[in-house]
Amino acid sequence: MEYYELPVDDHLKKYIKCFWVLKCGNEGIPKDYMLPSGLGYIFHMRTSESFKATYPESNDTVKIENGFYCTYLTSLLEFERKEMLVIGAAIYPVHLGLIFKGGLDQIKSKTKKVHELYNIDISDKSEIDIVQIIGDHIIHQLNINPIKKDLSLIYKKMIETKYENISVKEVASWLGCSERHLNTLFRNHIGMGAKRLIQLMRFNHTIELLEKPEAKDNLAAVAHQVGYYDQSHFIKEIKAISGKTPSELLLDKESISKKFKLY
To answer: Which pLDDT score is estimated for 211?
Structure first.
């Protein structure tokens, strides 16, 4: 398996975390998974044979073939591992409601074709060409629907703050609104309430910490670092989000999932 990231132009950096390229075969792993990152993805798939991808939470199963797809990775995604070349963009969730005008329910824990791009002939296109196609599509959608600046600033502050220690009440105070109004804004623009987004941010930080050598000997310290003071609550919430306990995530070294993270 080979994974690497490509540079993001300055005018796209506030919308896109990274462009990425993934090359892999099944490598003796018939099935794989991706963990919920809270990021949206637009990607081009080139595969030797079609395969199924399933979100157990939404019971959404899609046959993946060659072409452009999008998904909002808010829960565990399982798929058959095939030989594939995937080129995509990881998009910050605060912008997804504008890029996907039909509503985030169409892509939240679902995988859909990007119909505006699907019939583009990319047979002679390079990785950079495909990145350009995806970037141009994102900018086109955002030009039609400009972002609410206050919400964008709040999301940026959440990323920069030690979000494992913040509450919905504190985030609402930054915006000078009620928790109810904040959750309405988040659901309309991000597709989830503020509490769920904070949980996913904590989860991403957990994955980061679990990759450190010392994590396997001190899960209690990992739990404390991401804002959990009860280890049993920590284990329960991580499993509820990912379908796996922290110990199971520690043991899995071969999954593609470790490459796709919010932080």
So the answer is: 81
Domain count, the chain: 2
**Angle of the 168-175 helix axis to the 149-160 helix axis, nearest 10:** 140
Residue 4 neighbours by CB distance under 10 Å: 12
CA 73 → CA 176, 202, 250, distances in Å?
A: 29, 15, 21
Looking at the fold, whether 238 and 177 belong to one and the same domain comes out as yes
Structure tokens at 237: 């919430």
Provide the pLDDT for residue 8.
92
Cα(236)–Cα(243) distance, rounded to whole angstroms? 10
59: left (phi over 0), alpha (psi -120 to 50) or beta: left
Return d(Cα 4, Cα 27) in angstroms, integer.
Answer: 18
Amino acid at 81: R
Task: CATH number of the domain at 70, please.
Answer: 2.60.120.10
Handedness of CA 238, 171, 91, 99 (dihedral sign): positive
User: Which of 94, 115, 144 is the endpoint of a domain?
Assistant: 144
Residues 63 and 91 in one domain: yes
DSSP string for 59-75: TEEEEE-SEEEEEE-SS
- Joined together, the tokens standing for residue 238 give 């991580």
Predicted pLDDT of residue 217: 76
CA distance 63 to 192: 26
Q: What residues of the chain score a pLDDT lower than 50?
A: 262-263
Closest CA to 22 of 66, 71, 113, 83: 83
φ/ψ region of 259 (left if φ > 0, alpha if ψ in -120 to 50, else beta) reads alpha
Range of the domain at 8: 2-144
